Every structure is written in structure tokens, then in C-alpha cells.
Amino acid sequence: MSMIRDLRAAVRPSQRKENGTYDTTRAPGTASAVVDCAVYRDGARVESTGTLSPHQAMRQVHRDGGFVWIGLHEPTEAEFAGIASEFGLHPLAVEDAVQAHQRPKLERYDDSLFTVFKTIHYVEHDELTATSEVVETGEVMCFTGRDFFITVRHGGQGSLRALRHRLQDDPALLAKGPSAVLHAIADHVVDGYIAVADAVQDDIDEVETEVFSPGRKGSPRGTDAGRIYQLKREVLEFKRAVSPLLRPMQLLSERPMRLIDPDIQKYFRDVADHVARVQEQVIGFDELLNSILQANLAQASVAQNEDMRKITSWAAIIAVPTMVCGVYGMNFQYMPELHWRFGYPLVLGVTVAICMTIHRTLKRNGWL
Asked: What is the pTM of this model?
């Protein structure tokens, strides 16, 4: 709340240096929050003799036209306060950008659009375990104005440096202004979703094959349940990043907005279609994992029932010699065939015959 009060007030003198630039530097030995700051005019980057500050960039834009693109990585409240005041960003949007951990959304303010994207990165692993991290999330917040575009990135993944260079190689598209950059970032993030969905599909196929493999009888009990549940949790995290983004992309593609170039707005339809397709895939992953988990639990129950049937069958077979031995172990003086020479082998033979008959009957009925 203190940040909101500070932003609603005038810029504090301590936030601005004498030369008009804002202090966005950190402690010595720590990288600056500003990753890149550049002015673009007619689709080309305006070269500068030194490091360009946000204030200097805006002075160039006001004087010669074009727009400024500022990229920040995990700025603190103090580092972002001067930039927010310079560009007139809404305090609520600034608070969300600094604190992060926001759901994908699109918010419209008087002079700017605030868009939140969840970036997804697939974590490579040699073997899927019950503790494997499958997807890693980050965030990219975008402020789109008439003559500025600001990105605030959180997390170690999702660098936009390659995207910036790719856009600089397409002056015709970059000449459309900040809305072209917004579309490029949206398309870049959603393309990442598609790649991650394909990789997660491979993990699910692997787990499904192992669960329903005929040669799985010798595997330890319960080894798959933890892996399936962990994969389901990772898919749920993926779903939280994809599903909320569909509505913002539909709004950008359907509703006219004065900050979005009409020619660029058409391209958001393709992004919305890709988001819808990935959303369907993720929902399908979740349902399939539910079915696999239920099938795995059912197989475990069946295996336990089979074990109990085998134990019961062998107990029934062993009961016959136990009964005979128990009778002849009572040491009575007068017992049948006690002094007969062939009495002992006869009793053993009858006992074995009865056990074999019981074993054959149980095996024929599928108990053994």
C-alpha cells in the first residue's frame, strides 16, 4: 500500500538525479533491473552513443517520434517507482508487476494496457520420478502505451532478448508500434506452450505404457502412483497458466482498442486459436491422468486379490498334511494301520494324492 501512495503522489526528489534520469541501479556488483532500453522509429532501432535511460528515451520519443521499449527483470519497488511515474502507469498495475505471482489477465486503463503472461519451460529429466519437476513457470508483464512498451519479467526463464532481435530484423512489423511488440510476445509465449505440451505428452505416453504393459507384473507395488500424481500436479500448474489466457487473447482479437493497431489485431486471432488448442490438450492430459491413476489403483487392487487367492490356495493344500500329521501325532496305542508295514507309505501317498487333487482343481479355476 505504501507503494501505491508513493506512485499517486509526485515523484520524490530522491528518485530523480540532477541530469533528469531515474536511478534504477542496484547495489554494486548486482545487475541493473533494466535489461534493455531502446527507441524505435519507423521500425528501426535508434542507435545511441551510450546507455540510454528511460527518461532520456522518452525525451527522444517526444522530440522525434517513435516509441520506447524498456525491458526489466525482477525490479524492486524503488527501482520501478521512477519509471512508473515517468510513463504514468496505474498504481494497481505497478503493484502487480512488482509483486508478481499473478494470473494471466488483460486490464485496460486510460492510457495503457496491462497484460500478464505466464511463461512455461519444460524441465528436461532422464527419468520421471515421484519428485520430478516437469514444468517451470515464470511471468512476463507488459505495459502497452501509445508511445512506449514496458516488459517486466520474473523468473529465470523466458528471456526476450532473442525476440527483440527477431523483431528488429522485421522493420515493417515493428513500425506498427507497441501493439506489434505485444503480439510478438503473446505469440512467443503461446509457442512455448505448444512445445511444452508436446513434451508433456511424451511423459504421459511413457507412464501410460508402463501402467498397461503386460510385463509389469514383476514391478514393485505402488511405484507408479507417485509418478502419476506428480505428473498430474505439474499438468495442473500448466493448466493454470494456459486457461486464464484464452479470454484476454479473444478480447485483443475481437474488440477494437485504440492502443492496438487494426492490422495487428487480426494476428491475435491466431494466438487465441493456439491458446484454445493448448487448453484442450491440457484438459485432455488432466482427464487422461485421472484415468491412468484409477487404472493403476485398480490394478493394484487386482494384484492384492490375486495374492490373497494364492495364499488361501496354498493354505488349503497345506491343511491336508497338517491334519493327517496332527491325527497321527496324538500317540494313541490303538490306531488304524499303526503296526502295518505299508501303513506309513500309504498315508503319505493318500496325503500327496489329496494335495495334488486340490492343487489341480484350484489351478483349473484360476486361483493358482
From this structure: 0.75
